[in-house]
Target: Acetylglutamate kinase
Amino acid sequence: MKETIVVKIGGNASDQLPTTFFKQLETWWLEGKQILIIHGGGPQISQWSEKLQLPVKKINGIRVTNNETLNVTKAVLLGLVQPKLCQFIGNAGLPVIGLNASDNHLLEGKYLNQAEYGEVGQVTKINKKWLQEELQNQIGILAPLAQTHEGQWLNVNADMAAATIAIQLHAESLVLLTDVPGVLNSGKVVPKLTETVADDLFQQHIIKSGMMPKIKASFNALRNGVNQTFITNDLGRPGTQFQYVEK
Ligand SMILES: Nc1ncnc2c1ncn2[C@@H]1O[C@H](COP(=O)(O)OP(=O)(O)O)[C@@H](O)[C@H]1O
Ligand SMILES: CC(=O)N[C@@H](CCC(=O)OP(=O)(O)O)C(=O)O
Model:
């Protein structure tokens, strides 16, 4: 079976993708790898929520989402962020398809903690067979939303969605592309990060906010069979590589 690479692009990163991003995608594509991109859009959702005078609240990097925020999230991710990314990648001469949870039951999910976060979920199941077929012919760009078995849409943190999907696809690598060159400690990138060191940086409040779901997602992926996980702002540089030590 072809090697699969899952790349998550944060909302900040998606507005200013460097040439190296498209070059690396092209290299992987020409090498015959399957590529799935999960896109975020957090800053864009916050911006539109503010314009619409809706509350913007995150707990540990997870957006508290009521029904109105859920509608804004769907509109922004599927109406603004995803088409723009498809356009950029298509303009780079690569075959691409935009995807969402409702395509052939692509992403099923369940509530994370409705009392705390509202209409927020985690991915529980993917339509792997159909997705693998789609990825044979084109690069997939998928939004981080899921649907419950009953059809209720859920907002999913894109880092967490990317990790679960990478696990279910038995991906070789998961790359979290963001607006910082890796996990930073005193202004320097930590090149290799174990869970013990990550816990320590978290206790010291050096790892916080949007970095928290990324750390959790990266170790979750490694624990469950993904061979390599990275956080970087440039696909040409490894940034921080996560190291899983079995306990
Ligand atoms: N130790 C850390 N190293 C680097 N970034 C950190 C750290 N702790 C918190 N952050 C924050 O995490 C942000 C990346 O998360 P986020 O804004 O959610 O990005 P994305 O939109 O790519 O998911 C960085 O811009 C930075 O502000
Ligand atoms: C539940 C939850 O937090 N969902 C995220 C989905 C988008 C996202 O994760 O975007 P970034 O990767 O750009 O942060 C949100 O509403 O912001």
Observations:
- The chain has one domain: 4-243.
- The first strand starts at residue 4 and ends at 9.
- The pocket of N-acetyl-L-glutamyl 5-phosphate (ligand 2) is lined by residues 10-11, 40-42, 45, 62-63, 73, 120, 144, 155-158, 210 (CB under 6 Å).
